[in-house]
């Protein structure tokens, strides 16, 4: 995984060679415009989490875990049938933008396809540990905007 997050200018380069495979797990990172710390606002954060749930309810994705950081989202999901990863992200960004009253996200996103089942749990641990690494909390349970299917008995 690349250490730098995508920028609007680099968004096109991130799409080169992107291939979407239904049923494949992807680790996706997308960033708020101008790295604004938009999700310090509880209402905006909860509305965005509901948008992730809507993507799942529509069969576009199956969320394995996510963490919504103040200025970006890490989302480990399985791609639904009949839709590309780019289309899921376009719909998510559009839907969340409408719910939050206007454009929220930078163009583009970073993705990594997980090729092996054994990669899922380490990727999920990486995702949910973000608030700890960022120094936002001392215990993961203190951070409100994350979830993982393994806690719900689904993993």
Automatic annotation (TrEMBL):
One of its GO terms (molecular function) is transposase activity. Residues 21-130 form the Transposase IS200-like domain. The lineage of its organism: Bacteria, Pseudomonadati, Pseudomonadota, Gammaproteobacteria, Oceanospirillales. This is Transposase. NCBIfam families: REP_Tyr_transpos. One of its GO terms (biological process) is DNA transposition. InterPro entries: RAYT_transposase, Transposase_17, Transposase_17_sf. SUPFAM superfamilies: Transposase IS200-like. It comes from the Bacteria. It holds the Pfam family Y1_Tnp.
């Amino acid at each position: 995984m690349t250490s730098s997050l995508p920028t609007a200018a680099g968004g096109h380069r991130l799409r080169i060679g992107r291939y979407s495979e239904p049923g494949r797990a992807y680790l996706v990172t997308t960033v708020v415009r101008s790295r604004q710390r938009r999700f310090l606002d509880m209402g905006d954060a909860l509305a965005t989490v509901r948008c992730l749930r809507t993507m799942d309810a529509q069969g576009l994705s199956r969320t394995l875990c996510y963490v919504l950081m103040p200025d970006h989202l890490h989302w480990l999901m399985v791609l639904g049938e009949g839709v590309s990863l780019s289309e899921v992200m376009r719909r998510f960004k559009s839907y969340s933008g409408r719910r939050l009253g206007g454009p929220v996200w930078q163009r583009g996103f970073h993705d990594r396809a997980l090729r092996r089942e054994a990669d899922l749990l380490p990727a999920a641990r990486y995702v949910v540990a973000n608030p700890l690494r960022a120094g936002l909390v001392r215990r993961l349970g203190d951070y409100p905007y994350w979830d993982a299917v393994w806690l719900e008995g689904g993993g």
